């Protein structure tokens, strides 16, 4: 398993109604043992979360199914992170 840092930055089309679906998505990842950390940025520009996945492709598939991404409310980027 590798760690992947996922950043989400709000777009001008950000829809606040997607927040509940985003948190439900994160809760599901947590229950499945994929999510390590998550939280919003204090400046309200977006947030980040740290997941475990077997490959970059799996991490991207997870991240790009996030409701903030599918609704075009946020730009989602995935980084393989060698955190210690």
From TrEMBL:
UniProt-recorded name of the protein: YciI family protein
YCII-related domain: residues covered: 17-82
The family this protein is said to belong to: Belongs to the YciI family.
Gene3D superfamilies, A to Z: Dimeric alpha+beta barrel (3.30.70.1060)
Organism: Sulfurimonas diazotrophicus
């Amino acid at each position: 398993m590798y760690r992947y840092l996922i950043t989400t930055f709000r777009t001008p089309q950000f829809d606040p109604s997607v927040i509940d679906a985003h948190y439900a998505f994160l809760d599901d990842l947590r229950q499945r043992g994929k999510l390590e950390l998550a939280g919003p940025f204090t400046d309200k520009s977006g947030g980040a979360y740290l997941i475990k996945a077997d490959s970059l492709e799996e991490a991207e598939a997870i991240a790009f199914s996030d409701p903030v991404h599918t609704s075009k409310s946020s730009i989602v980027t995935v980084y393989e992170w060698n955190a210690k």
